[in-house]
Design a protein that fits this description.
Layout lengths: L6 E11 L5 E11 L3 E5 L6 H7 L7 E6 L2 E2 L5 H10 E4 L12 H11 L4 H14 L15 H13 L5 E5 L7 H13 L3 E5 L3 H7 L2 E6 L2 E7 H5 L2 H6 L6
Parallel strand pairs: 3-8, 3-9, 6-7, 7-8
Antiparallel strand pairs: 1-2, 1-4, 4-5, 9-10
Helix pairs in contact: 3-4, 3-5, 4-5
Length: 243
């Protein structure tokens, strides 16, 4: 009998330095189970975004990274394609993901990259836009939309690939209160495993039952969000504030 596991992410002793020699991640180990919603928090330069970029092989450090049952470092082109289909990475700036003539084209880009037939591409685009409440925007130009609308379209671009997990970098950055509330409500409805890098501690409190703190590239705390938010000494030590 094949043993099944609910483990979605395994990171073991991960180290990464940028070309200038700056250490961005130092001996980071982390496990995330399927369906979890986990916040990655910490001060600027803590390594949060760097860690997210390892989940689909954009960056490859020294150590073990396994996502959705696939080993990431050293993965072949075919394996990387499967990893990137499994991991929906949403950048902090939605303009980094939206570059096509229309919203439909932006959302269709991933399924087309997966070489899916046109009928399946159309189905996935329609479903992804419906999921984020943007069905009527298919013919619009992405760069003419508000920041909140762009964030929703950016999420739709990865949902169209039907990923097993979503990795979001500062998803609430630049949003007004109404757009921020709408985004949190949307993320709460998604069934995927969520890994969220953020400074927004209110979002953490409302969305993520588990929180991980990174500081200077090191994992310094990992526990329930409520316990971490109640530890003022821990928060102050690592440049964080209670919501």
């Amino acid at each position: 009998m094949v043993k099944t596991t609910s483990q979605e992410i395994l990171i073991k002793n991960l180290n990464f330095s940028y070309p200038d020699g700056q250490m961005a991640l130092s001996n980071v180990s982390l496990e995330i189970q399927r369906g979890e919603r986990v916040a990655i928090v910490g001060p600027n330069g803590a390594g949060k975004s760097t860690l997210l970029l390892h989940l689909n092989g954009i960056l490859r450090g020294d150590g073990r990274v396994r996502v959705a049952g696939l080993e990431v470092p050293g993965a072949s082109d075919g394996a990387l394609r499967r990893v990137r289909a499994a991991v929906g990475l949403v950048f902090q700036n939605p303009d980094d993901q939206l570059f096509s003539p229309t919203v439909f084209d932006d959302v269709a880009f991933g399924p087309l990259y997966m070489e899916l037939p046109p009928q399946e591409v159309d189905r996935r685009v329609t479903r992804a836009l419906a999921w984020v409440g943007m069905e009527e925007y298919a013919g619009r130009v992405s760069h003419h939309l508000s920041t909140g609308e762009k964030k929703r379209i950016a999420i739709a671009t990865v949902l169209a690939m039907e990923p097993r997990l979503l990795a979001l970098d500062e998803p609430s950055a630049g949003l007004d209160p109404r757009a921020r509330r709408s985004l949190i409500e949307l993320l709460c409805t998604l069934p995927q495993t969520l890994v969220v890098s953020t400074h927004d501690m209110r979002l953490v409190q409302e969305l993520c039952p588990r929180t991980v703190i990174l500081d200077q590239g090191r994992l310094v705390a990992d526990g329930s969000t409520q316990e971490i938010l109640n530890d003022e000494v821990l928060l102050n030590t690592h440049g964080l504030e209670r919501p």
